[in-house]
Design a protein that fits this description.
The protein is 43% helix and 18% strand. By secondary structure, it is α/β, with parallel strands linked by helices. Bound molecules: 5'-O-[(R)-(carboxyoxy)(hydroxy)phosphoryl]adenosine and zinc ion (ZN).
Length: 333
C-alpha cells in the first residue's frame, strides 16, 4: 500500500510516499527556519503564507523525484493536528483536494502518532512499549500495548522540553532554533550553575518552567551587574538536569508498566546527550531502545505516512469534513 503523506503543522512543508508503513520511497521537505530566524521563533501568519507558496512545489517535486503519479497512490495521510491552525489547514486542504479528485481514502494523522511511528521506519515497533515524546510542543510518556493504541501516563504541566531549550538558548543569545545549539555547546561546558532540578518527584509528569525561569533570572541578574554568563557552562548545567530527570522517570515507567521496549520521539529526540543517557540506562536495565534517525526527528512527511498506514489498518479514516485542530489529544485509552 502506497501512502502519500503530508505534514504542515509548523514550519516545515513536507511530503512523502511511504510503502506499507515501513519503507520510505521518497520525501521532499521545505523548511522555513531561515525565514523565522530573524524573528527568534515561528511566526504563525508567516508560516501559513509560506506553506501556501510551497505546497504545490513540494508535491510536484515529490512526484518528479519518486517517478510516481497520483494514480499510483492508494491513500492520502495528513496531519490534522495539533499545530498552528493556519499551517495545518494548508496541508489538509491539499490532502482533501487530492482525495476529492481521485476518490482515494483520506487518513487523519495525529502529529504525535507521527513522531512515534518515525521509529517504525527504522525497525518494526515491538509491544508493549513506552514512547518518550519530547518536542517543541510536547513532553509525554505514552504506554502502547499494541499498534495505534496510546495511553498517556505522564505529561508536562507547563512548558514542553523543546520550548524550554529554545527559551534558554534565546536568553543566552543563541539563534533559533536553540535546542541543537544548546546540545552542541553543552558538550564544551562544565556543570557549574546551581539550577533547580525540574520536578524531580514520584510522578510521571514534567515541569520545565522552573528551571527555565531560573536560567532567565540568572542571566538577567548577571547582566545587571555588568557580567556575562558562561554560555557553555549554562548549557551543560541546564541540559544535565533536564536529561537526568527525563531519563529517571522514563526508566521508572518502563519498569512499572513491565515494558522492555522504549522508543524516543519528537524534535528533542535529536538531542545527543538524551540519546546517550537513555542508551546507557536501557543497557543497564535490559531494555530495547530505539530512536529515529536525525532526519525523522524533526517534523517530516515520512513519519506521517508511517503512522497513517497503522491508522488505516485500525479503520481510522476521514471524509471531506475533516478539520484542522490546534490542540487535540491523541490518547485513546
Ligand atoms: O518535533 P519538532 O520538530 O516540532 C514540534 O512538533 O514541536 O521539535 C522541534 C523542537 C525545537 O524546540 C528544537 O529546539 C528541538 O526540537 N530540538 C532539540 C534538538 N534538535 C531539535 N532540542 C535539543 N537538542 C537537540 N539536538
Ligand atoms: Zn513535531
Amino acid at each position: 500500500m502506497y501512502i502519500l503523506a503530508i505534514e504542515s503543522s509548523c514550519d516545515e512543508t513536507s511530503m512523502s510516499i511511504i510503502k506499507d508503513g515501513i519503507e520510505e520511497i521518497c520525501t521532499v521537505t521545505n523548511t522555513q527556519i531561515d525565514i523565522h530566524k530573524k524573528f527568534g521563533g515561528v511566526v504563525p501568519e508567516v508560516a501559513s503564507r509560506s506553506h501556501i507558496e510551497n505546497v504545490t512545489i513540494v508535491l510536484d517535486e515529490l512526484l518528479e523525484r519518486s517517478g510516481f503519479t497520483i494514480d499510483m497512490i492508494d491513500a492520502i495521510g495528513v496531519t490534522y493536528g495539533p499545530g498552528l491552525i493556519g499551517s495545518l489547514m494548508i496541508g489538509l486542504q491539499c490532502a482533501k483536494t487530492i482525495s476529492l479528485v481521485t476518490g482515494k481514502p483520506l487518513i487523519p494523522v495525529h502529529h504525535i502518532a507521527g513522531h512515534i511511528y518515525a521509529n517504525n521506519l527504522e525497525k518494526r515497533l515491538e509491544f508493549p512499549l513506552i514512547a518518550l515524546v519530547v518536542s517543541g510542543g510536547h513532553t509525554d510518556l505514552v504506554y502502547m500495548k499494541e499498534d495505534y493504541s496510546f495511553k498517556r501516563i505522564g505529561s508536562t504541566l507547563d512548558d514542553a522540553v523543546g520550548e524550554a531549550y529554545d527559551k534558554v538558548a534565546k536568553v543566552c543569545g543563541l539563534e533559533y532554533p536553540g535546542g541543537p545549539k544548546v546540545d552542541k555547546l553543552a558538550k564544551l561546558g562544565k556543570d557549574t550553575y546551581d539550577l533547580p532540578y525540574p520536578l524531580d518527584d514520584d510522578s510521571y509528569n514534567f515541569s520545565f518552567s522552573g528551571i527555565k525561569s531560573a536560567v532567565v533570572n540568572l542571566v538577567h541578574n548577571e547582566e545587571q551587574r555588568g557580567n556575562k554568563i558562561r554560555v557553555n557552562d549554562m548549557c551543560t548545567s541546564f541540559q544535565n538536569r533536564v536529561v537526568n530527570v527525563i531519563t529517571k522517570k522514563t526508566i521508572r515507567a518502563l519498569k512499572e508498566y513491565n515494558c522492555n521496549n522504549l522508543v524516543l520521539a519528537g524534535g528533542v529526540a535529536a538531542n545527543s546527550y538524551l540519546r546517550e543517557e537513555l542508551t546507557k540506562a536501557c543497557k543497564d536495565n535490559n531494555i530495547n531502545f530505539s530512536y529515529p534517525r536525525m532526519a525523522y526527528c524533526t517534523d517530516n512527511g515520512a513519519m506521517i505516512g508511517a503512522a497513517a498506514y497503522y491508522a488505516y489498518k485500525k479503520g481510522i479514516m476521514a471524509d471531506l469534513t475533516l478539520n484542522a485542530v490546534a490542540v487535540e489529544t491523541l490518547y485513546n485509552e
